[in-house]
């Protein structure tokens, strides 16, 4: 009879373990179902955000390439303006300097230049 009682206790303990294991598996299944239900919308949102980021990067690339093109055109305009300035300088400045020198020479030749004014004596120097 002792063997039968030990056998009953062993079967009862095994039944308790199996009932608890069943509850644990049911809870785990519910948790996994809940996680899956929440994860799918999150993954969809992440995919949408990733697509938006890809589109924005495409726009940034377009703006960057436009800025490089604009910078090259500005550099070309700057070099053209520099060349134009040098051309104007060599075309206009040389003859203007020569005309000014000629005018100065003619004035000196005819005595039309101003005579230097005499400065009044400095009162501080004469005291000494």
From TrEMBL:
* Region named Disordered: 107-128
Q: Where is the composition biased (Pro residues)?
A: 118-128
Coiled-coil region: 18-63
Keyword annotations for this protein, in alphabetical order, are:
Coiled coil
User: What's the protein name?
Assistant: DUF948 domain-containing protein
Q: Which organism is it from?
A: Mangrovactinospora gilvigrisea
């Amino acid at each position: 009879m002792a063997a039968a009682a030990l056998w009953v206790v062993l079967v009862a303990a095994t039944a308790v373990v199996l009932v608890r294991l069943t509850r644990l598996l049911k809870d785990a299944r519910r948790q996994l179902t809940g996680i899956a239900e929440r994860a799918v919308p999150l993954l969809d949102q992440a995919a949408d955000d990733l697509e938006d980021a890809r589109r924005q990067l495409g726009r940034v690339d377009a703006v960057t390439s436009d800025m490089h093109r604009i910078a090259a055109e500005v550099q070309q305009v700057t070099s053209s303006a520099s060349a134009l300035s040098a051309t104007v300088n060599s075309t206009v400045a040389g003859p203007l300097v020569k005309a000014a020198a000629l005018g100065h020479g003619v004035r000196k030749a005819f005595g039309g230049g101003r005579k230097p004014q005499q400065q009044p004596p400095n009162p501080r120097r004469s005291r000494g």
